[in-house]
Amino acid sequence: MxxxxxxxxxxxxxxxxxxxxxxxxxxxxxxxxxVAAVLDGKLVxxxxxxxxxxxxxxxxxxxxxxxxxxxxxIQKELxxxxxxxxGLVYLEVTRGADTGRDFPxxxxxxxxxxxxxxxxxxxxxxPSAKAGVNVITVPDLRWTRRDIKSVALLAQVLAKQAAAAxxxxxxxxxxxxxxxxxxxxxxxxxxxxxxxxxxKNGNEILPGCTRKAxxxxxxxxxxxxxxxxFTVEEALSAKEAFITSASVFVQGVVAIDGKKVGDGKVxxxxxxxxxxxxxxxxxxxx
Amino acid sequence: MxxxxxxxxxxxxxxxxxxxxxxxxxxxxxxxxxVAAVLDGKLVxxxxxxxxxxxxxxxxxxxxxxxxxxxxxIQKELxxxxxxxxGLVYLEVTRGADTGRDFPxxxxxxxxxxxxxxxxxxxxxxPSAKAGVNVITVPDLRWTRRDIKSVALLAQVLAKQAAAAxxxxxxxxxxxxxxxxxxxxxxxxxxxxxxxxxxKNGNEILPGCTRKAxxxxxxxxxxxxxxxxFTVEEALSAKEAFITSASVFVQGVVAIDGKKVGDGKVxxxxxxxxxxxxxxxxxxxx
Lengths: 286, 286
Description:
The structure is a homodimer of 286-residue chains. With 286 residues, the first copy, chain A, is of the alpha+beta class. Chain A folds into two domains: 4-120, Aminotransferase class 4, branched-chain amino acid transferase, N-terminal domain (D-amino Acid Aminotransferase, Chain A, domain 1); 127-284, D-amino Acid Aminotransferase, subunit A, domain 2 (D-amino Acid Aminotransferase, Chain A, domain 2, Alpha-Beta Barrel), CATH 3.20.10.10. The first copy, chain A, has eight helices and 16 strands. In chain A, strands 8, 9, 10, 11, 12, 13, 14, 15 and 16 form a nine-stranded mixed sheet that branches. Chain A has a six-stranded antiparallel sheet with strand order 2-1-7-6-4-5. In chain A, helix 6 (209-220) packs across helix 8. Chains A and B meet through strand 3, helix 1, strand 6, strand 7 and helix 5 of A and strand 3, helix 1, strand 6, strand 7 and helix 5 of B. Strand 3 of chain A pairs antiparallel with strand 3 (18-20) of chain B.
């Protein structure tokens, strides 16, 4: 059976899931998105994703077409309809479709667009969870408001395509000699002194939901965390490196630009944090 | 009668002009656009727009789904079907719709999306052509590849919305104390010595088609042109300021952030360049 998507109030097969060519998401990247993981048919850390959604739309003065509670209901309904046990729910809100194309916000009677779809994906037992991933580095070309989770993702597309072309699954973006974040993940290293280092939130990076949860879980376990920028050289001489995101949870980085990190294997701290996060995800999924 | 749009090979009424929610234009702003003016039912400076389209798609390795010659045929067909005498033709090419959402480029069998639509607009006798326009200044938040005419336009949306909220029709974007360009236009000043100044092309700005034509036409008339960055202070103490774009041609800027430029009226050089451009546009439209 064809999977079902949600488009502005209707549940429709993927092949019929369409938006107007006048949709401001299509014309202007005037929209916000979120991706939440699904485990055991339940939404992982979804309150955090919805809180970030609310913040992002607020930053660009975009009105949600539904309440957060209703959005979560639709997410759940879609997961159920598509029978997703392990996977992702994508949601996008845009400033709607006016009758023409004009940069400033449309009149208040143009309703925001809400689109959602799901995909099945093995997250817990993904092969890359055990083997780790290789990453490349690329210059960070993005705009200055990376804290807003907008669909203006062309720089990330180019970064992740460069990674794919090099046989890697992620690109670490570099600005002023420091790592900002991955194309679709937050970056961490574990120093020789077992300090977990990740960049501080600000306009320079997206405040990762999984990043936030991992930092909190680590702190609760009295692990040492430092929020600061780091260089690629520092990452290469670190004990471990890893990335976090809603779709990979915690994933070891075993090489950067073809150079081994640590012993070139997923390290014990990364493995432990992954385990802790999976436990949290399962225990709190809704 | 409802206007007609072009979507991937079909001419359809605007209300039926739709793309998949999996279209990479909608999900990732992974697309390029162009806007050409129409005068007397003909395309203005279209070869220049198509050349820029070809360059932009090349920069992001996006394959055009049709030849430039065929694209121009479709533009003309659409202008005819919608009976546009004076107005605009918008065209957007995206990296197509895959079956799911994944950052790297899809497989080669995913065909690029091509969408076009038109709008009627008085360009020659627009009231703002005589009266000039007021602009505000905003920080330039954009990414570092502004020479690519991508649909990742959220920063421009926010800039032009700020302008609209202030009762202005354009926002000049400022970086490192200098004007880069307008939200959807190129910026010029005319100094006390009658030198026409506009920023040099580079990654910092879009190479404007109308900008290019105006510079060439001015040079042919032995007017003095200097391509360099300028500050807002310089613009405020200049004789004249103006903007150029496919949709406004040449338009006087009479105030910046509420402060008068020159005597607060459209200046003689601006009026002359507008006249020269209109003459060129009419003479060369196809």
